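User: quick one, sequence for these tokens?
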């Protein structure tokens, strides 16, 4: 789980306000600032988790790899070009490991990865929208950014 930071700036503002007799307007302003800061922290946790290997990876023989949008697009173009040129197999590289596979299997893997990438993006956006809709600081603080991500794509070669 990703760390939950404390809102030190909010704590200082709180201590300053309670030294005096705060007005209702000051209480509301402090609460709004605290909620806004907690939302920023929660969204930062969501984005950090989304960018981690816990989410952005697929498993080849239980080892994590990730091909970003650009790499997946380049691979698809290369595979389709080679197929059009009459090649029956293609090489895919997983780090320093080369795998020779059929056109159909390579395209199926890329399709699976594209679907996975779309699902994790949608889950992240759903988390962000959920946090933005919350108004209770404790609900925001306790929000579970790990929930709901799909199972990783797994292949054995």
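Assistant:
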């Amino acid at each position: 789980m990703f760390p939950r930071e404390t809102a030190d700036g909010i704590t200082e503002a709180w201590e300053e306000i309670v030294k005096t007799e705060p007005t209702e307007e000051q209480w509301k302003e402090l609460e709004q600032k605290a909620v806004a800061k907690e939302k920023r922290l929660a969204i930062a946790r969501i984005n950090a988790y989304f960018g981690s290997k816990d989410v952005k990876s697929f498993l080849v023989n239980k080892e994590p790899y990730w091909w970003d949008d650009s790499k997946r697009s380049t691979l698809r173009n290369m595979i389709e070009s080679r197929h059009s040129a009459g090649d029956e197999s293609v090489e895919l590289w997983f780090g320093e490991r080369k795998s020779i596979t059929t056109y159909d299997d390579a395209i199926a893997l890329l399709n699976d990865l594209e679907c996975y990438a779309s699902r994790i993006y949608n889950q992240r956006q759903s988390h962000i929208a959920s946090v933005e809709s919350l108004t209770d600081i404790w609900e925001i603080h306790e929000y579970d950014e790990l929930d709901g991500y799909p199972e990783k794509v797994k292949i054995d070669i």
